[in-house]
């Protein structure tokens, strides 16, 4: 709840002495509301923030944005999964050694939710739009909950996957951000 608006994603920069340097809110381009879930440092200064934003074209879209050290904001290409009655949300993000920004979470439509990973270039465009949805489960409510960069230019995402209506398993994806790089997925 920020400044009387519970539907705003809030980012605050605090200086070394504990003094607030700036406070920014984000409600989406349409002003319908947003929720932030994670922050990661940008290699050139500032931070990346991810979460979800409400949209009239779809139910919700995953967002990644960058704040500069002075607080100017750049919103990356929203993850709308083609529009329509879909919900996308990013739970976590990381920056790889190749300076790609990886956001992970879920995409849902028609009552099922699938794990989702999106890779962005530093300018906010999709770097890997062809490999967005991974490890689809047959029973819905699958999602990646966390991601970490590895030292080889890739990332490892983890979350859960429903193997049956009563059996939830851990799922892990390792993917390279290099062209024709290796990747693998496992369910435990």
Question: How is this structure best described in words?
Answer:
The protein is mostly beta strands and 188 residues long. 0% of the residues lie in helices and 56% in strands. It has no helices and 13 strands. The protein has strands spanning 9-14, 20-26, 34-41, 47-54, 58-67, 73-75, 84-95, 101-109, 112-120, 143-149, 154-164, 167-176, 183-187. Strands 3, 4, 5, 6, 7, 8 and 9 form a seven-stranded mixed beta sheet that branches. A four-stranded antiparallel beta sheet has the order 10-11-12-13, with no helix packed on it. A two-stranded antiparallel ribbon has the order 1-2. The protein starts with 8 loop residues before the first strand and ends with a strand. The mean pLDDT is 85.
Identify the overall geometry. Answer: globular
Summarize the biggest pleated sheet. 7 strands, mixed
Rg (C-alpha, Å): 17 Å
Q: Roughly what percent helix?
A: under 10%
List keywords for this structure.
188 residues, 4-stranded antiparallel β-sheet, globular, mainly beta, 56% strand
Brief rundown of the structure:
The protein has strands at 9-14, 20-26, 34-41, 47-54, 58-67, 73-75, 84-95, 101-109, 112-120, 143-149, 154-164, 167-176, 183-187. The chain is an all-beta fold and 188 residues long.
Which helices and strands occur, and which strands form pairs?
Layout: E1 9-14, E2 20-26, E3 34-41, E4 47-54, E5 58-67, E6 73-75, E7 84-95, E8 101-109, E9 112-120, E10 143-149, E11 154-164, E12 167-176, E13 183-187
Parallel strand pairs: 5-7
Antiparallel strand pairs: 1-2, 3-4, 4-5, 5-6, 7-8, 8-9, 10-11, 11-12, 12-13
């Amino acid at each position: 709840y920020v400044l009387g608006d519970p539907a705003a994603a809030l980012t605050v920069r605090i200086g070394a002495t504990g003094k607030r340097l700036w406070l920014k809110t984000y409600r989406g381009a349409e002003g319908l509301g947003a929720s932030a879930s994670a922050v990661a440092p940008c290699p050139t200064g500032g931070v990346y923030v991810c979460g979800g934003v409400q949209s009239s074209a779809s139910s919700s879209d995953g967002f990644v944005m960058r704040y500069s050290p002075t607080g100017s904001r750049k919103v990356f290409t929203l993850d709308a999964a083609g529009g329509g009655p879909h919900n996308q949300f990013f739970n976590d993000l990381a920056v790889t050694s190749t300076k790609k920004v990886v956001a992970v979470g879920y995409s849902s439509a028609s009552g099922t939710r699938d794990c989702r990973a999106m890779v962005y270039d530093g300018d906010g465009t999709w770097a890997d739009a062809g490999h967005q949805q991974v490890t689809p489960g047959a029973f819905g409510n699958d999602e990646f909950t966390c991601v970490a960069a590895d030292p080889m230019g890739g990332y490892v995402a983890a979350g859960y996957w429903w193997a049956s209506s009563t059996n939830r398993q851990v799922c892990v994806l390792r993917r390279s951000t290099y062209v024709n790089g290796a990747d693998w997925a496992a369910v435990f």
